[in-house]
Amino acid sequence: MVPLSEHPAFLLAQLGFHVGARFADALEPLGISPRHNGMLRLLQAYDGQTQQQLGEALHIHRNVMVGLVDDLEKRGLVERRRHPSDRRAYAVHLLPAGLDLLRRIEPIARGLDDTVTGGLDPAERATLLKLLGKLTTDAGLTPGVHPGLTQGTGTEE
């Protein structure tokens, strides 16, 4: 029987769990979870779109989108405004407090990247990034969207 340490899927899962837990711990003092960070980053890229447009483009279930936006809105990080061309819809906008929070998170994320890949030289790190990108594409994952963001109600921590 092949040891778990020789199964790429196990090693990726082990490392993913470890990194995810460390990132969650690093975000805890800021009062947010990785899911909040993911949604804020998506809103930064797609500011002013409707919840439905965001959900469809990012393959995020409507209920998840609503729950996350509700939570971020309560925290004063985003707001819903009437959509300029569709009176039935609301556009979601990142507020200055949300953008400020993203700026505070960026060095945390970079530091985690550096810690995780600290044993690699720059060429190895570039190769790892390229290979991981290929694996995520081959798996049919949406670029830049964590699978955990697309499931659940959006309010779990």
Automatic annotation (TrEMBL):
Pfam families: MarR. GO terms for molecular function: DNA-binding transcription factor activity. SUPFAM superfamilies: Winged helix' DNA-binding domain (SSF46785). One of its GO terms (biological process) is response to stress. It comes from the Bacteria. Residues 5-137 form the HTH marR-type domain. This is MarR family transcriptional regulator. It comes from Nocardia stercoris. The lineage of its organism: Bacteria, Bacillati, Actinomycetota, Actinomycetes, Mycobacteriales.
